[in-house]
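Re: the request from the purification team.
They wanted to know what the chain is likely to look like in 3D before they choose a buffer screen. I agreed to run a prediction and write the result into the notebook, where they can find it.
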Amino acid sequence: MRQLAPDLWIVERPQRFAGFELGTRMTVVRLASGDLFLHSPVSLTPDLAAELTRLGRPRIAVAPNLLHHLYAGEYVAAYPELKLHLAPGLARKRPDLRAAGVLDGQARHDWSEQIDEELVRGYPMLNEVAFCDRASRTLMVSDLLFNIHAESPFATRLAFRLVGGYGHCGPSALERFLIRDRAAARASLERILTWDFDRIVLAHGRIVENGGHTTLRDGYGWLLR
């Protein structure tokens, strides 16, 4: 685990998708109650379980879109009191997951006093839910943005060059194609941009340590204009 702020940590793991090594990242937020909020869970090893227990009580996990769900069941099995919340549509895809609720971006949850959430509408094949930890001013996303650079494997760099997503933070051409309702997606992004964040923790590629507002706005400039 790597600490980014007083109550904010990340855990990074290798992860292949469609034959390419993208890596993946979980964000851990310790709430004022001492409960841990786990965004986009990664594989749970004994060492990671021990570190989580040392930090607080793993009580909340979110599978924030239709793709980031592979390891969620490991946390439900390991922590009987943990509440798992799924992106819309994920319950149909993963009926095996014991979930406490759906992330519709509107309902108040156990974390609502400290963490904002917004369902990015208009992306039916992704149904990404973005979160913002107010205390650390950190936006948490999964596949809403990529930030692939030279440290990624050659094949990954080549693939992202081909789809226009290499060397900068933003969506690739594939994400642009997946948007079915531009007006709805634009409205969701504009609501996210009202949040007070500076850092962006994303699942794939470099973390954006500062200038997050500008990064998000520039990345989706083609949609927000």
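For the purification team: Helices lie at 46-55, 72-78, 90-93, 154-162, 173-178, 182-192, 212-219, 221-224.
Please add any questions underneath this entry.
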